[in-house]
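ARCHIVE CARD
CATEGORY: sequence design from structure
SOURCE FIELD: tokenized fold
FIELD CONTENT:
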């Protein structure tokens, strides 16, 4: 895998920084900001982010940076559902009733809520693995409606190969994910295919909410030799708990994205979520300024060969994994 060259971070205005900070609160209160440009057109953009964790936050920041780099004038309303499904529905209705010109949905449940609320307002989704499998579009190649966006599909088979390399004696792998996230099911099925091909046994371990994470990880101890978890929002938000229990019990955890490694996972081949959000922002600009039709805009993907190999050195030391053979890895 080639190392990913991260797009230089664009400057986000102070008012937007305050808006993003407000998103981290316990409610879904409105927070917005406005940019100005010479052409006189100001676009109203609503943002529904499923929950607060580093990967989704980075996607949000990348999206806003793309708008700023395009030089358009916009008013943005940042909303965060704090991983509450009912809040997703309430916020989606609010954004639609506000008459926004475009809505960004970050995370599959957020996109599903907004998609159910309007078939007219253009919707850009991001941090979504499979738009078609999630019922958001007719197909990923030809969306056919008002929804398009950028996919965070990761190289699951390469992640399983990484697990084999780092834990060569693993006989059974625990597959950890949240049952509320349809895209996690897609990635877990891909992981099962890769493990079957490698002749490694596997077992699914599921949670329905973050409150169950510690108990489920504890139930794996003595039953599995390693854990694999994909880009699952519930697990990502609870990675501190995952890593605390797993690392104490010498259970290596291969994860779906870089931010999960930073939060204590052992390693990953990962896309960059800032870049993912930036790509979504570029698509939004095309729709707003060029009249592009979401129905005719294929789902966008980051190049698999540009994924980043990232390893947590402290975690490797704690669980006794030798990472010296990963010459191209970035360590955190």
């Amino acid at each position: 895998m080639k190392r990913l060259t991260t797009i230089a971070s664009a400057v986000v205005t102070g008012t937007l920084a305050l808006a993003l900070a407000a998103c981290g609160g316990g409610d879904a209160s409105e927070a917005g900001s406005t940019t100005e440009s010479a052409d006189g057109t100001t676009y109203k953009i609503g943002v529904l982010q499923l929950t607060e964790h580093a990967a989704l936050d980075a996607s949000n920041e990348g999206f806003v940076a793309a708008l700023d780099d395009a030089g358009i004038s916009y008013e943005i309303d940042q909303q965060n559902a704090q991983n509450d499904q009912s809040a997703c529905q309430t916020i989606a209705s609010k954004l639609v009733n506000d008459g926004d010109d475009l809505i960004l949905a970050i995370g599959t449940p957020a996109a599903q809520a907004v998609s159910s609320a309007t078939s007219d307002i253009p919707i850009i989704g991001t941090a979504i693995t499979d738009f078609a499998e999630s019922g958001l579009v007719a197909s990923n190649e030809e969306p056919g409606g008002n929804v398009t966006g950028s996919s965070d599909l990761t190289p699951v088979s390469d992640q399983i190969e990484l697990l084999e390399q780092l834990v060569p004696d693993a006989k059974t792998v625990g597959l950890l994910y949240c049952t509320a996230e349809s895209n996690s099911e897609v990635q877990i099925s891909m992981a099962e295919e890769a493990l079957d091909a490698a002749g490694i046994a596997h077992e699914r371990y599921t949670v329905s909410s973050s409150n169950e994470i510690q108990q489920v990880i504890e139930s794996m101890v003595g039953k599995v030799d390693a854990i694999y978890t994909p880009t699952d929002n519930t697990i990502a938000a609870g990675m501190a708990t995952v890593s605390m229990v797993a690392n104490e019990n010498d259970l290596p955890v291969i994860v779906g994205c870089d931010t999960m490694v930073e939060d204590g996972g052992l390693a990953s081949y990962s896309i960059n979520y800032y870049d993912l959000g930036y790509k979504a922002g570029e698509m939004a600009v095309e729709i707003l300024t060029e009249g592009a039709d979401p129905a005719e805009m294929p789902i966008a993907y980051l190049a698999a060969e540009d994924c980043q190999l990232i390893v947590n050195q402290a975690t490797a030391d704690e669980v006794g994994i030798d990472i010296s053979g990963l010459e191209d890895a970035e360590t955190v």
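CARD ANNOTATION: Residues 1-31 have pLDDT under 50 and may be disordered. DSSP finds twelve helices and 14 strands in the chain.
SHELF: design records, drawer C
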